[in-house]
Design brief:
The structure is a single chain. The chain has one domain (6-244): Rossmann fold. The strands form 2 sheets. Strands 6-7-8-3-9-10 form a 6-stranded mixed β-sheet, with helices on both faces. The protein has a 4-stranded antiparallel β-sheet with strand order 2-1-4-5, with helices on one face. The protein has helices spanning 49-57, 79-89, 105-115, 122-131, 147-159, 177-190, 204-207, 230-244; strands at residues 6-16, 22-33, 38-42, 64-69, 72-73, 90-94, 165-169, 196-200, 212-217, 220-226. With 245 residues, the chain is α/β, with parallel strands linked by helices.
Length: 245
Amino acid sequence: MSTPLLVAHDVVKTYRGADGAPVPVLRGISMHIASGELVAIVGPSGSGKSTLLQCLSGLDRATSGSVQIAGTDLATLSRSALAKLRRDRVGFVFQAYNLISSLTAWDNVALPARLARRAVRDGDIERALAQVGLTTRAQAKPAALSGGQQQRVAIARALAVERDLVFADEPTGALDTTSGEQVLALLRTAAAGSRSVVLVTHDLQAAAQADRVLVLRDGLLHAELHDASAADLLSAVTAAAAVSQ
């Protein structure tokens, strides 16, 4: 068996409350992501899904425990080294799209490479836009694009440069059904070969597209399901919510 692309061990995350006392959000989560997997993270509101994604991706540091990406322990990296690892090996797709309104779709897709001071290869940008079906909209700015098109630009931006991991946080939450299905199909296709996708979602139909689904409850891993249906996931999330009450 090959070495997992991402390994998290006993990840704990706490925040300081208004009274100064620590508030636990993640209470010791261990998991792994293999190359080529699409893994979904679901759970009741407040279960720690987005916090876990932030710790796994290096957007936030765990309070304790460890997260390794391709064998590198994120806790050992300086802030600049961590930023470089994210820039080189991690892509992000968020519900809010995070596109620059003054830039065209083409320039938004090219932006990460430019920020990294890499050569921007036209072929890479054109390939990524073609993958998401937006070749003819390359010169359009975000205001001229629908919500689904903007999200597809965000996915093209994550795919334009080869990265090991793509993290998607509620990428279909603001989309209509058709646009959401298109975005999910793109993420499903992106999880192949050496690249994996981690999807945080409330949409159980979306999560059912994943190879594995992790169900969180109160900052703990409540269940792990393989090739689950939406009905299976509804039962698991309902059970997690009932235990949380």
